[in-house]
Structure formats: C-alpha cells, structure tokens
Amino acid sequence: MAVTIIGSPSPHCLAVFARASAVHAAQWSRPATWRHNRRMRIQPARPRCPPDDEVSRAERDGMVTRQIGARGVHAPAVLSAMRQVPRHLFVPPALRVSAYADYPLPIGHGQTISQPFIVALMTELARPAPTDRVLEIGTGSGYQAAVLSRLVAHVFSLEIDDELGRQAADRLAGLGYVNVTVLKADGYEGWVSEAPFDIVIVTAAPPSVPQALVDQLAPGGRLVIPVGPHDAQELSVIERQAGGGTITKTIVPVVFVPMVHRTVVGGRGEESVAGKRSRTTGRVVGTACPPKSRERRRRNDEESTPRRSTD
Question: What's the whole-number average pLDDT of the chain?
Fold first, then answer.
C-alpha cells in the first residue's frame, strides 16, 4: 500500500500509518484458499442431508453383494432398490458408520431398523410390480417404505407410535419419496379406506395372522408377515386366490418383536402385546434366525433388557 504524507507528520501519525500498512499487507499476502476456508469455518454450509458420496455408494454395493445376493436374493429390481436407497440417512447420525452392517440398529423410541438382508428378502417375497399398491404395517425409520417406493406405484404405511411416524414421514418427504403416505394407526385394522392392496408387508410379529389384513388383499395379493411367539416365529407369505381362498407358504425362521395392538381400556387407549397390556415387547430384532439358534436366542432374550422395534 503506497502512502503519501503531506507536511510534517507527528511520530504518532507515522506509527498509525505503519500499523495500517502492516495489517493490509498481511491480509492480502495470505492465499485465497485460506480466506475461503476461514469463511466456511465461521459460516459452514449446512446441507439438509449428508451427501450420498462415493463411500456410501461403495458400502451399499458391498452390502448388496455380500449380505443379500450371496444369501439368495437375486431379483434385479430388488437389488437395484437396495443399492439406491441411502440407508445411512435412516439411522441416527451417531450410528451412520454402522448403517451398512449386517445387523439391526436402534433408531430411538426403543425400536430398530431391520437387518438389510431381511428388508431385501421380504421385498423379494412380496414380488412388487410398478403398478402395485402396498400397505406396510410398522413404518419405523421409513427404510422399508423407501425401498418399496422404488418398485411400486404407492406405499401406504401405518405406524402406531406418533412421534416415530411423524419423523419418518418428514424424512421420506425430505428425501423425495413422494409416493409414500404415512398414517398413525393400529396396524391390526389395516387401512380400510385405501384397500384393496396388491401387497401387505408387516414388520412385527402377531401371534396369529390378523384377518383384516387378509381381507384387504386384492385377488392375487401377497401378505408377507412374521407370525408366532417370540421364540418360534416364521416368516410367511399368504397369497389370496381369485375365489377368495388363500395359500400360505412358510419361508424361514425369524426373530421380530411382537406386533403392538391398541385397545380401549377404561375409556383410554392403551397398547397391548399378545393380549397383555404392556409397553415392552422383547429383544431388539428384525433378523433371520436359523432353527438351531432359536434356543440360544431364547436364553439370550431372558437375560437382555426388553425394548420395542420395527423397521
């Protein structure tokens, strides 16, 4: 910076000009990149969601190859959907490093997001088509609904927990899954006003199949549901025939939490599990269970702290 002084300046003035010159020179001698980075640190950009970067896509590819395809899920559309949906955006930020691991993760409210393989397996068993209308029982994090939304016309999802359902609806809308509708309701009753459905998929295990869900299947519709007590559950597919009958196929032993049912007791609504009023429903699960490990899982359940889960 050039400074022209007219007259005879005092020593004080000379000192002021010297300091100004030094500050100016120091500021503009710094690299431009440093100035940019400094501003970004003070006022960082805050994207609505973390970017779906190359690392996340690579982790999804590994998840699909090692956990899903290697275990027998081969439908190309299902594998594609599992690769597309950013699972790490459906888990709490502190757990995103484990988002693509081969096990369920807690999502708050005592619930979990299911093991990736189970999500893929149930989706493949439902045989989704682009024109299908799907009823999901148990929205949870919204991950299963997001996967289904890539494969069908519309997903209608019921969640009994008000706050969890609200969070999932906001998350799905924020990520652009516009063909998913979330409603707070008791899944045992289904969604009568939107029936019939081509697919009904349930992410918690009732002791027996709710008849309302079978009744809301369209002819040829498929109900994918874990059924049975906590230590003896089976993943089943129930297909409704044109004449109104059904065909049931048992697929694999699984471990899910019991399906919560809302009842009216003394004029107020309460949640019940398998006919007992309760707020706790068993071990956090949502995973495949080989038959030989059932007894071991049952013993582990008795020693673990109970908590609820859905996908």
Answer: 78
Asked if residues 167 and 117 have their Cβ atoms less than 8 Å apart, the reply is no
Q: Count the helices and strands in the chain (H runs, E runs).
A: 9, 13
pLDDT tens-digit profile of 278-288?
A: 332 333 345 66
Secondary structure E strands in 64-215: 105-108, 111-113, 133-137, 154-159, 180-184, 197-202
Q: Which residues are catalytic?
A: 114
Q: What is the DSSP string of 104-116?
A: -EEEETTEEEPPH
The two beta strands, 233-240 and 217-227, are antiparallel
pTM of the model: 0.72
Q: Which of 17, 23, 13 is nearest to 2 (CA)?
A: 17
Domains of the chain are 54-303 (3.40.50.150)
Q: How far apart are CA 270 and CA 277, in angstroms?
A: 7
